[in-house]
Design brief:
- 73% of the residues lie in helices and 0% in strands.
- The protein is mainly alpha-helical.
- It has one domain.
- It is globular, with a radius of gyration of 20 Å.
- One of its GO terms (molecular function) is acyltransferase activity, transferring groups other than amino-acyl groups.
């Protein structure tokens, strides 16, 4: 049975909450939420936290799996929620837009090239890129060489970020290379390094590679931060770096053995972890739509209602929808395997 890291699930939910705050309380034209910009403008850092967590969690879940088992586990985790959330987003957008079917189909099939039914799905293309890398390692029976793959990913992403920062080289390829992990590979590599450190002591060259990955991640955060930083607020740039650093420190701490918790607390925390993915998928377009419809009661009330609604929908997905769909998928797979 795989190790389960409770603290990381809590951290994952908080990261999703940060992203929701960013879209609903900063990056929108619905209302002026300037008073809370100090804590909402850097909510995009939740995505960078997600990527580090994915590097750690996927390495842990892939360890000891066959390629088929790995793919099955990823399908069970990703598809049921995206089918529900993409359909809900399609319904919401259909009231004011047309010609949404191609984007919807790309979304429910997790095609790594957009446009998708919601712009936030771009991160799934990045995730799929890392899944492909891990799958290839499993297929080649080289998962034990994960450290070398993490090194290659660290170097590739670092060079890509240098190209992006200096504007010298194939900048367009780096900017469009989500599935190739050109820009974000350093985050997944860092997560993989942290996981490897839970299985054995890192070698000197691995510790150096981990340090390079951290520096590359900070560089990417700086480049991303410049895109969203409010005008004249350069002093705010430190905030996302500090929050991300704190999150990475928590991942490292939570990955170590801790005190056992009660079964009730375990269930609640696992539910939070399962809610993270649908919360991320529905908070943007669905959340903004809810926020817009409650503006009549005041912008702060609308903001709170939109966030709470997104959380409620995510609970419905993980507690009611996903278990039923997963049972059907498992039953179909078992039938196929025994036919």
């Amino acid at each position: 049975m795989k190790n389960y890291f409770y603290g990381i699930d809590v951290l994952r939910f908080l990261a999703a909450f940060l992203v929701a705050g960013f879209h609903l309380g900063y990056l929108n034209d619905i209302a002026d939420f300037t008073p809370v910009w100090l804590v909402t403008w850097f909510g995009w850092i939740g995505v960078e936290v997600f990527f580090v967590i994915s590097g750690f969690v996927i390495a842990n879940s892939a360890n000891g799996k066959t390629p088929a088992q790995f793919l099955r586990g990823r399908a069970l985790r990703l598809y049921p929620a995206v089918w529900f959330c993409a359909t809900l987003t399609l319904i919401v957008r259909s009231f004011s837009e047309t010609d949404l079917l191609p984007a919807y189909l790309r979304s429910i099939m997790l095609i790594p090239k957009g446009p998708w039914i919601d712009d936030v799905y771009w991160t799934l293309a990045v995730e799929v890129g890392f899944y492909c890398l891990v799958f290839l390692l499993l297929l080649a029976r080289m998962f034990s060489q994960l450290s070398r793959a993490a090194l290659a990913l660290t170097l590739f992403s670092s060079i890509s970020l240098i190209i992006l920062a200096t504007k010298y080289g194939p900048v367009g390829l780096v900017e469009r290379g989500n599935v190739l992990l050109a820009r974000h590979g350093c985050f997944f590599a860092l997560g993989a390094w942290i996981w490897i450190s839970t299985t054995r002591r890192l070698l000197p060259w691995e510790r150096i590679a981990l340090t390079v990955a951290i520096v590359a991640c900070i560089g990417e955060i700086y480049l991303r931060g410049r895109e969203f930083l409010p005008a004249g607020k350069m002093e705010w740039m430190l905030s996302p770096v500090v929050v991300w650093f704190a999150a990475v420190a928590c991942i490292f701490i939570f990955s170590r053995p801790g005190k056992p918790i009660s079964e009730a607390a375990s269930r609640r925390i696992r539910t939070l972890g399962l809610m993270t993915y649908p919360l991320y998928l529905v908070h943007h377009i669905v959340g903004l739509t809810i926020e817009r419809h409650f503006l009549f009661a005041g912008k702060w009330f609308a903001l709170v209602v939109s966030v709470l609604s997104a959380i409620a929908i995510s609970w419905i997905v993980c507690a009611l929808w996903e278990p039923s769909i997963k049972r059907l998928m498992r039953r179909d797979w078992n039938f196929t395997h025994t036919s």
